[in-house]
Write a structure and sequence with these properties.
Oligomer: single chain
Mean pLDDT: 96
Helix content: 25-40%
Distance between the termini: 42 Å
Shape: globular
Strand content: 15-25%
Radius of gyration: 22 Å
Structural class: alpha/beta
């Protein structure tokens, strides 16, 4: 007797003028546009939040009718991509640093701004003053905007608390928003953002984080990733290495704020086997080789370059040097307040001469690698059905319009986001 198969969980979504599954691309190094798979007149069969099949719509439609699958019709010409992934943000914060920005564009230095009460410690003061409820509300609103713009997974750092209690507050806010929001949040502990004003000894502070904060993160399941800012104004190479080796020993994944102004951070990232090294504006050939040999993903942050009025990370050299390149926003209240991933990726691509395939991979499949996530970033069997559709017939227009063409249909785990 034939088994009675339940088809109520199957949904065919389409037809799409083009589907870019972002599959079968190299994990690292340069990508030619000819390597980008484009499925014309296509559909996606989804089951229980995961992709079952991507293929020609006509064929999938026949299968759907025979098996009585649900149909979700797309009635206008659209191009479908995996949901975008923002692999580096600081969007849990309170307050504004508009005054800093005005001073910076008027020619004031970082030190002058800090002396006048601005800088990271200004965000620390305002975030400490905010209640948990206020932080949750502010974070939720930023997540709402990000999701509307096609970001279906977003990394969020702490780092504006800089005490055990305040870092826990930030990570609790991230956890609460993640529990109820459609977008997935990936929390990262950046208690080592800079030395807090109450401390004068970096070693003592980092030891406090290791012994008092990180065990609580594991107990309360608040974060499984640890980050540190390696710079003269934050933490030095030796301090960072000791801290990260200890955090890794505890079972945390490691990422590093590296090479924004000097090049110590990439050495740290390579030595500890970090998943990603982020920023990298100051990186040269030696640093690129180090990161490549250690298998570290290079996450570049054009939003910080735009906000600070400085050069971009050498993305073209990184790809040609064999690195896996991700592009993220660095959305934060100080150096990168814009937070528009598609716009920033398009502008960086034009400036650094990245192929369309390289830029799109950097905000989908390679961004997933930067977060050590193997279940998303591509549209393939068994992967999460996070998908975004743009109102165009030609996928090249997505970057051509430099961020002004936004997705108008978004699915999270196969369900349309309203």
């Amino acid at each position: 007797m034939k088994e009675n198969k339940d088809t109520s969980t199957h949904t065919l979504i389409g037809p799409f003028t083009q589907v870019l599954p972002m599959t079968n691309l190299p994990e690292a190094g340069a990508i030619k546009d000819e390597q980008l798979q484009v499925v014309e007149q296509a559909g996606v069969l989804v089951q229980e939040g995961k992709v079952l099949k991507v293929g020609k719509y006509e064929q999938l439609h026949r299968e759907a009718l025979e098996n009585k699958y649900k149909l979700e019709l797309v009635e206008e010409p659209m191009v479908l991509l995996p949901g975008l992934i923002d692999a580096h943000t600081h969007i849990c914060f309170a307050g504004s640093r508009a005054n800093d920005y005005a001073m910076r564009v008027a020619g004031k230095s970082y030190l002058e701004i800090a002396r006048s009460g601005g800088g990271i410690l200004d965000s620390v003061r305002k975030t400490r003053e905010a209640t948990l409820v206020e932080l949750v509300d502010l974070l939720k609103k930023r997540c709402d905007r990000h999701l509307r713009e096609g970001i279906t997974t977003c990394e969020v750092k702490s780092g504006y608390g800089l005490t055990v209690e305040e870092e826990l507050k930030m990570l609790e806010a991230i956890k609460l928003v993640n529990r109820h929001h459609k977008m997935d949040l990936i929390p990262t502990c950046l208690a080592a953002h800079m030395l807090p004003p109450e401390h004068t000894d970096a070693k003592v502070y980092l030891e406090e984080v290791l012994t008092e904060l990180l065990p609580q993160l594991q107990e309360q399941q608040l974060a499984s990733r640890v980050d540190i800012f390696v710079e003269e104004t934050a933490f030095k190479e030796v301090e960072a290495l000791e801290y990260l080796h200890a955090a890794k020993e505890m079972g945390f994944d490691i990422t590093v704020h590296a090479d924004q102004f000097s090049t110590d951070g990439s050495r740290v990232a390579a030595e500890v086997g970090a998943i990603s090294a982020d920023h990298l504006e100051a990186s040269g050939e030696e640093e690129i080789e180090l990161l490549k040999n250690a298998g570290v993903v290079a996450t570049v942050l054009p939003g910080a370059s735009l906000g600070l009025g400085m050069h971009y990370a050498p993305a073209r050299k990184m790809l040609d040097g064999g690195l896996c390149l991700a592009i993220a926003t660095d959305w934060n209240p100080g150096s990168a307040p814009m937070g528009d991933l598609l716009l920033q990726a398009a502008i960086l691509g034009a400036a650094e001469k990245l192929t369309t395939a390289e830029t799109l991979a950097a905000i989908t499949t390679r961004a997933a690698r930067a977060l050590n996530l193997s279940d998303r970033g591509v549209l393939a069997r068994g992967k999460m059905a996070d998908m975004i559709a743009f109102p165009t017939e030609n996928y090249r227009e997505i970057l051509y319009f430099q961020g002004k063409l936004k997705p108008t249909k978004i699915w999270k785990r196969g369900e349309k986001v309203k």
